[in-house]
Amino acid sequence: MKVLLTGGAGFIGSHTVDALLARGHSVRILDNLSKPVHLKGKPDYIPNEAEFILGDVSNRCDLEQALDGVDIVFHLAAYQDYLTNFSKFFEVNSVGTALLYEIIVDRKLPIQKVVVASSQAVMGEGAYLCGNCGIVYPNIRKLSALKGKKWETNCPECAGAVESQASKEMVTNPQNQYAMSKYSQEMIAINLGRRYGIPSVAMRYSIVQGPRQSFYNAYSGAARLFCLHLYFKKPPTIYEDGRQIRDYINIMDVVAANLLVMESERADYQVFNVGGGKPYSVLELFEITALVFKSQLAPKISGEFRFGDTRHIMSDITKLTRLGWRPKYSPQKSIQDYRSWLMGQGNIDDVMDYAEKEMKRQKVICKAGGVKQTEAYYSGVSI
User: Fold this and answer.
1) What is the CATH number of the domain that holds 127?
2) In Å, what is the CA distance from 382 to each residue of 174, 273, 305?
3) Model-level pTM greater than 0.90?
4) Tell me, what DSSP letter sits at residue 378?
5) 93 with 78: CB under 8 angstroms?
6) Is residue 172 included in any domain, yes or no?
7) Is 377 part of any domain?
8) What value does the mean pLDDT take over residues 230-258?
9) What is the mean pLDDT of residues 80-105?
10) Are 303 and 376 in contact (CB under 8 A)?
11) Among candidate residues 246, 311, 309, the one with its CA nearest the CA of residue 275
12) What is the rounded distance in angstroms from the CA atom of residue 318 to the CA atom of residue 305?
């Protein structure tokens, strides 16, 4: 089959490209090589066997050209950033997805399946259990609480203590521009797909880890951050107290899930959580990274935080496992693979300076106590 991958030069896209080629499919990539993800242009890991189109998913001509003769679409292209240019999130993510379906319908293209990349961010803080009120869904933590180092969230009804729960696909509580745009992509894909008979699936990825994560994209998360610091023998900063829970998944498990829903009719018109199946604290992930790097460096826990981060989040993956998928690889495997890839790269001396300057320029990081910042600013990123 002929498979189009928008954003196919990126982290998840490029690994999916490799897997599709290995299965004998014909592959076409549409990617605009946007910065900072592709700060140095087209990556050298893009195989020659894959047709490459430099173009944008929000450009009708580019997308029409890319869709010509295609059977399957993986729509992975997305805009991610900390910035408050809200309209761009919806222009790229929402309008780009709507344009994809518009072209398919207008041109009566015989597309057999569309797989759309969504995000765990759609769930916001996710579900929590309150001893008094049962299952509740807290919103963003207040800046005043974070400034006072009150990291844990509370019940939105009685203000009592709550315990984080694995969240099912029915949980939708997007709290930032990126998450809202991703939720809109889910609705476009599932609802328009069903209405016009275009089998569609939305994949709600947790925090994906492994090689090829961009050095320059602060959205790449904890594995990139920890590995780069230990590579340069610098202690990384861990935000809040490091006890926040995250759901990490290896890239190979994500690729396996992508191929499964592509081939399974049982997946059509559904949203699936794609997570690691086991929660880890950020401190636990650092400990795993330190073991892989054989490092004795201790992290800095300085009371800094990123306003808008979730406190705890984990996806319930029961629905996807019913199709026969299970995550196979541990965070240690993800770190080992990232380290191996990192060691093989050149010209990365500028990475740390670039990342730190960007974080400061965008005023993403806050310090507990005395931070002059409004609650209108929202980064919405979790590591």
Assistant:
1) 3.40.50.720
2) 13, 16, 11
3) yes
4) -
5) yes
6) yes
7) no
8) 95
9) 92
10) no
11) 246
12) 32
Residue 94 maps to a domain: yes
The model's confidence at residue 381, banded by pLDDT at 50, 70 and 90, is very low
Only one residue has tokens 């002929």, namely: 2
**3-class DSSP state of 32:** coil
Helix (H) or strand (E) holding 16: helix 11-22
In contact, 113 and 73? CB cutoff 8 Å: yes
Would you state the pLDDT for residue 27? 98
Residue 376 lies in a domain: no
Number of domains in the chain: 1
Band (184; pLDDT cuts 50, 70, 90): very high
Burial of 187 (0-12, 13-18, 19+ CB in 10 A): middle
Residue type, 24: G
Query: Hey, is 62 helix, strand or coil?
Result: helix
Structure tokens at 189: 């894909």
Structure-block tokens of residue 337:
């693979």
Range of the domain at 139: 2-367
Q: Which of 168, 166, 170 is nearest to 278 (CA)?
A: 166
